[in-house]
């Protein structure tokens, strides 16, 4: 019977091509608008490291006091004093501190110009903590951190530029006149959102091509290439900057269990209490320890415009469905004589429901195909509405294509329920008498 009803539905669609075209367009445009904005929302709200997001924690300590913060929220980064104290205590399985630096890679060939690169100063634990994928070699060791070694990890794209994609582990790279030994080459890696450096990137960035040890970067006085936030002037000189309450460092800890996370949170509270007793803080301890998704939520990484546009597009889809309901109602009730004859010949209301819902499903398939084409165009054009670093994240992948078809078919079937119910109420006797 399904095949028979499908044939009836296709025949009915060909009988009223203009009405059919209007319904297909309503479904197609409504679904395309919602799926295009959903592609952006999905890209900006996804879990950037799903295999470990619940064991990676961002650390916050209030070193500014309630008069310099809002709603009791600690500053989004740490001072050098706090970050290094926590690193030395080493209360987590792994922990790392990062800050962005801007360096130029100087090629060995003097005829070539220096290459300006995004870079991070960080620790050896950064790479296993965040599952950074290596193509050559490995990360530097914890001993290299302690020795303040001149070592570096570079990206594939930089390796291609400097070493033509060849083996570069063990070779040296010149960064702003300082030589670093390359220990590994990673894929061009930049999880989106860029969760480990939200204060400087707002969550979206191309990532870095160079990573060097944090301790060595401090020795070389490599300035922070991100945000420098201070409640008062730190004074002149690098040493004064390190001793100040300026916040510029992100610290992450890997804590495999909830019990370890609670223990670490208690340690942070105790550390802040000690700072209060020493006279450095004049306020009660205010610390936060949040996993990846909690951190992204608190920092409002998902752009507000993507949320608003998604709601608007869903509203547009509802309007399209309301129009489709009206068109289907007109289409189905025009066939009242046909329905009356079928009922008189023994068709049940259930048969009428099945026939017309299958017909609506065929409209949904056609609308879904049109929606796919329009969604593809919409994804290509999201750069007209959203910033480039966000627009490039929106893609029409197999998952979105399947979802578009499912939404189109489901929406058309849902829209057909009321018109089908009205059609099923047709009284056979009345139709036979009047016709």
UniProtKB/TrEMBL annotation:
Identify one Gene Ontology CC term for this UniProt entry.
plasma membrane
Residue ranges crossing the lipid bilayer per the database entry: 21-41, 310-333, 353-386, 398-418
Where in or outside the cell it occurs: the entry states: Cell membrane
| Topology with respect to the bilayer | Multi-pass membrane protein
Keywords carried by this UniProt record = Cell membrane, Membrane, Transmembrane, Transmembrane helix
User: Is Zinc there in the keyword field?
Assistant: no
Name of the protein in question = FtsX-like permease family protein
The organism encoding this protein is Luteibacter yeojuensis
